[in-house]
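re the bet — no i am not wrong, look at it urself. input seq straight from the record:
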Amino acid sequence: MTNPNLHSAAGQQDTHAPENPDNHQRLSAAIAEAVSAAMSQHAAQLTQAIAAGFQSLSLHTTPQRSTVEMQTLPAVEQQMQQLFNRSPPSVPNSRTSSNHSPRSSDIRPDRTSQIMTNWKLRFTGKSSSMSVEDFIYRVEALTNQTLDGNFDLTARYAGNLFESNASEWYWRYHQSVPHLDWRNLCMALRGQFKDDRSDHDIRSEIEQRKQRPNETFDDYYHVIAAIADRLSQPLSEISLLETLRANLLPEIQQDILYEKTNSISELRYLVRKRELFLQSVSKSQPGSSRHGTRRQMMEFTTVAYSRWSCSPTTA
């Protein structure tokens, strides 16, 4: 026995109007619009997450990541993998990469020796040269700049940094120790070459050191500065300026008597100008030795310089 309801439903299906093709187009367009909106929303969220992640990376400089980084970066990676099926670009770590100096572990032995030779730093151990403290400071600064702070390399190739008496001492020390260590080498250097004089004694040496005949101002200043570097309490520039000016050659002091100098550079300019003038005068007088004594020539050039420096053309 048949169900009349089934016949009724079948009749309704047979009499239903055919589907309109425009309905399929509208449906496809609606689906595409919904998908596009969803992707745009995900892209906006992803952009914000990436911006927050990189901002937290730039703000935190400690080796360990902050809580914000730990929460943000995995979410960024997951969203990028889901949407684009690829991993985010890697960000170089500025703490581990540097363009200024090669990593010490990547430097060949011959390259290390060449780098230290290029420092052009030699310690002689003489009282007229740089002090041992100044030498140690320069070596440590250059090691940090060019050898990535690897003082094991510095100690291994330290023979490149000594000459004269200091070189002889270094190789005796090298033979007496089983292993070279920078700290121990510094202690031995100080024990051998440190100036044990008091600041009072060093200042007395500075005050008693006069400029010598035929000694240029630059050579004289270099000697005084090397002695002053041995002070535990450095001299002020004004004190050093007064000492330099008071210990110049008498004829130079006379020529610049009324010239005011507020810095060592100004004093050097005055003295160097006089030195260059006297050199030009001596070159223009090739037969000066036959026309007068050295003292007479000096008096002549001194008077000539005084007139030249006071002329309106040199003002």
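see?? The two ends are 134 Å apart (CA to CA). told u. also The chain has 15 helices and no strands. so pay up
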